[in-house]
Amino acid sequence: MLSWALTFFILAIIAGVLGFTGIASATAGIAKLLFVVFLILFVASFFFKAAGKADNFVDRNL
């Protein structure tokens, strides 16, 4: 899950760079939206993965 979020985050950055520089000005709004969405997904998946590791640590020590 984290690898998918990272992949789409990088794609959103590339789309953002292309959109913000005027190469594809029509897609700048979509690129901004995708950047924010995938940034949120990346952070959320990071925390869910960390929470899962913490949960496994607690289960092993019980």
Helical segment count: 2
Identify low-pLDDT runs. none
Radius of gyration, in Å, reads: 16 Å
Domains, number: 1
> What's the rounded overall pLDDT mean?
76
Helix content: over 70%
- Structural class of the secondary structure composition? mainly alpha
- Main sheet, how many strands, which sense, barrel? none
Measured by DSSP, the beta-strand proportion falls in under 5%
Q: How would you spell out the order of helices and strands? A: HH
Based on DSSP secondary structure assignment, what is the total number of beta strands? 0
User: What gross morphology would you assign?
Assistant: elongated
Distance between the termini: 27 Å
Structure overview:
It is a single chain. The protein is mostly helical and 62 residues long. The chain has one domain. It is 85% helix and 0% strand. It has helices at 2-20, 28-61. Helix 1 packs antiparallel against helix 2 (28-61). The two termini are 27 Å apart. The mean pLDDT is 76.
Short description, anyone?
The protein has 62 residues and is mainly α.
What's the layout of helices and strands?
Layout: H1 2-20, H2 28-61
Helix pairs in contact: 1-2
